[in-house]
Amino acid sequence: MASHAAASGRKGWRMSFCLSNPLPCARALSPRGRSMVNNLKSYLRRAEFAALVAMPVLLAGCNPADFPASTFAPRSDLGHWVQGVYLETIVWDSLILALICGLIFLLLTRYSTRAREDQPGPPPPHGESIELEIAWTAGPALILLFIAVPSLRIVFRSQPATPPPHSLIINVTAHQWWWQFDYPGLGVETADEVHIPVGRPARFLLNSADVIHSFWVPGMGGKRDVIPGHVNELTFTPDTPGEYIGECAEFCGLSHANMKFRIFVQTPVDYANWLANQTSGPRNANQGAAAAGEHVFLTSACTTCHAIKGVSSGYIGPNLTHFGSRTTFAGSIYVNTPANVAAWIEDPEALKPGAQMPPLGLRGKELDQLVAYLESLK
Predict the structure, then answer these.
(1) Coil, strand, or helix at residue 270?
(2) Which has more pLDDT, 157 or 205?
(3) Nearest CA-CA partner of 192 in 59, 344, 32
(4) Is 0.70 topped by the overall pTM?
């Protein structure tokens, strides 16, 4: 009985060791076992070769132009700060990974334990080491500290207590599921599209009209929660003119994925021209389908929700004063074309689930006239 138990113990110990160290045990296996190990090694070599061949092909398909909402192409001071912390974290993680892999290799090759015939069980455990306990507790804490300090520094730099000199202040109100932008002191209000000049600090004051949202422009860097009854701040200085996609980064309901916006970074001259156009009223629709469409607008339910400077004073939906000059609408998910606007007016719910705009019941000539009027608002 004792010899049988000892033999069983030795067999169990060898099996446990071989399961954790299959390649050193290959010689001790049967011919069939060695064949299985060799087949496994061959399969792993082929998989590694295939991965090496496929990697350049996959990377070649990653064209930055196909990913406009990328954080790897920062276009503001905040974006560069965020990318710097990201790369710094990658360096620290890589060093830690190399250190751990080196230690594992050292332990496996220098301090590994092999089964012996005269050793029926695993070797006795070593005693506890207080120094080792302190090391693997303090080590991760220091790593987190190295990452936390630069991250917190960026958080405070992106929301200074006082705005930088000559900052452009923009009030942002998040709605389900669109964005409202107000330029205080300038008399400009727009929806889903915001214009800022290059090289000038922009300070966004963020609030929500309903639920919690999150304001995020990957190209500009940073992300801020937008909370009802509380104003959060986000400040950055864009450095490259262009069009940048923003989005809500906090699940906020049925059409969360359809709640986008666009930031147009313009040269000072282009921004001044845009601002001059926005501060003026809409162009008068004196004749044709647009003039008839203004009458349709005034006699429909549109005036209850939408404001047009000098025409209506609705406040529930987006301001339409210069709707025709916008490139997109409906949470910046549809290009502003007559066909898309007509489809939206006919059945908003079909184009954007959960849309809080009811269908107006307009068809045919009246619908065409209303679309012509809205497109004339430039």
Answers:
(1) helix
(2) 205
(3) 344
(4) yes
